[in-house]
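Moderator note: this is an archived Q&A kept for reference. The question asked for a predicted structure of one protein chain; the sequence and the answer are reproduced below.
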Amino acid sequence: MEPVLVLVLTVSCLLLLSLWRQSSGRGKLPPGPTPLPFVGNILQIDVKDISKSFTNFSKVYGPVFTLYFGKKPSVVVHGYEAVKEVLDDLGEEFSGRGSSPVAERMNNGLGVVFSNGTTWKELRRFSLMTLRNFGMGKRSIEDRIQEEARCLVEELRKTNGSLCDPTFILSCAPSNVICSVIFHNRFDYKDENFLNLMEKLNENFKIFNTPWMQVCNAFPVLLDYLPGSHKKALKNFAEIKSYILKRVKEHHETLDIDNPRDFIDCFLIKMEQEKNKPHSEFTTESLLATVTDLFVAGSETTSTTLRYGLLLLLKHTEVTAKVQEEIDHVIGRHRSPCMQDRTRMPYTDATVHEIQRYVNLIPNNVPHAATCNVRYRNYIIPKGTNLITSLTSVLYDDKEFPNARIFDPGHFLDEKGNFKKSDYFMPFSTGKRMCVGEALARMELFLLLTTIVQNFNLKSLIDTKDIDTTPLASTFGHVPPSYQLCFIPR
């Protein structure tokens, strides 16, 4: 019995030591549930719907609380006031990118999404400036989106009003828009390279939304020693980067410094300008990571919102009818929608905003991190601590959006039917690390959705009351359920 007793005592001591280290390490962190040794609070969280768990914790511990994912603490911020404080008022202090081991494996801490410090600041500033120069928010990018909208309509006409799954077609359009900005050309919807890229993007978004990926991020040691879908995600990402490297080499061979064609050319010119600068952030590796970030984020997020939006319009036929009535009145059937139309189309504008609010694409934002020791609400949050901001708690605030669980464009209309802005509208986050492509995504969603509804009636073969709009996954992002519909030409 003595060896068994020694083993039990040893394990007990280790558990007590772990608990003591975690509790003492919390210092002046916000309160939260007591973490278990090694696993933290992960067993107390519904990894299939993390937002719901956060809401339940906030009822017990208030709008700011601490959770442990494994051994590492994360401060969770819940509710509009708290989210605005940390992302806007303390934007610089919380401008770091939180730890995400799977993503870090993919881009080695480079690019604009998961980089930090000087790397992030320089690459973000360059990316924003270059995208603006290529027409982000200006006429030229609008022309590109309108061109893609016309191509999308032609593809949808080819379905001849028959039942189809719109996933692939709706993925192509936003991806082609960002491709025209970074590669200087769009793809034919049947191009083999394009088909391959779309397949890998769609597969990775699904993988990232599995509970297993949340476990891998909490226990990164699993990445090296266990098989699983994370291996497939890393392989897909490597193949996407390989294709982008091929395009970069082509650009390098045909580069005209005086006439940049696209984002890659601009980056190559910047690399040439800084080739003698020590420790320049503009390297081939940074170029690959940044272009990959723009391509992946610019393709998947907008296409998923577009797909979810059509599902909502398919279910809520009364909303679709009002949008079509407004389109017919302002635009007609034969002219392409343009951004100038939006100010004269309050109901359509409200509908696009409500789609983004209701879809709540990235419910808990991409994690931030403290760049220094931060004093916040009588707590001390140590440098490097992960910060999770619940965008769900803002987009679904019942005081700002009555009956927030109901899809209703009226959330963005005043009593006279005019469009009503809301500070709570944060689908792209807010503050210093808000989405680089916000202006582009907003323009795409308005023009693409309006063009589709202008040209087609959406028809479901099942009763609208039986159409389920509950997301398939609620971990990293909201993935709409699979569905089929008919695009009936108007």
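Archived answer notes: Confidence is low (pLDDT under 50) at residues 3-26.
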